[in-house]
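Annex B. Sample input.
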Amino acid sequence: MDTQQQDDKPQKDAPAKTKKRRRPRKLPFHKMVPNMITLTAMSAGMTSIKFAIADRWQAAALAIVVAAAMDAFDGAAARLLKAQSKLGAELDSLSDFICFGVAPALVVYLWCLQAGGKWGWPVALIFAVAVALRLARFNISTEENDPNDPLSKYFTGVPSPLGAALGILPMVVCFQLDKGGGMEGSLRTALASPYFIAPWMLVVAGLMVSHLPTFSTKQMRIPYKGRLFALAAFAILLAGLINDPFLTLSILGIGYLFSLPFGWRHYARKKKALEAGITEEDDLDDDDAEPGAELEEDA
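Annex B, continued. Sample output.
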């Protein structure tokens, strides 16, 4: 009887389960800034090819320099903004191959190598392939190397942005020599010859895929008291690039060439010291420094 009365009572509907609407993931805008810088570098590299097709050689060379400058900032921006991602890493590698492999090879080929006959194009191909191999090796080494190893702060071979800069260095020097005549004109003719440019490009390609230790920005440590002098030097560099870009770029390129033996010597000395158990304060990463220490960020 009781059960029948309970059945006759109207049953209250169970409260319906409320489904929470999942909000779409939102990415902060500043996280996209490094990728935007990378795309800017890629655009500059592609535009250099357009300038070369139109015989605007100076603009083509400067576009490659702009791409190299942008490439120096995208990685630093990603670290500072804590915006590292696999997408950014892959995009950076593809951009580097276009800007520092394809673009310099095509620009130099159209500028000079095509006048060398059938051997001009293989030289351009070898240069681009060397950049691809350099980037592939670099991507593997970043995963395998111990970041706490002081020797990992050195580049293995000439990095691709500087390799591209060295590839177009004869072109940049020729732009500067165009202002003079006489002996300078003869030197310009020699530098613009495919019989000089072809071996030069092959040497630069070999430097990129070599195991030659070279300096990197990870080793740059500016004393805190010397930061004003560093900023002043940077201002002088900017003034030189604005006032006479090709002379300034020529000096920087030739200076980097002269630094290569010193990089190898510095690496050998550092390796010998580490094998003897000797470490220096500069071997420590920024994370290993004492709290409150004044440290400059790597560029």
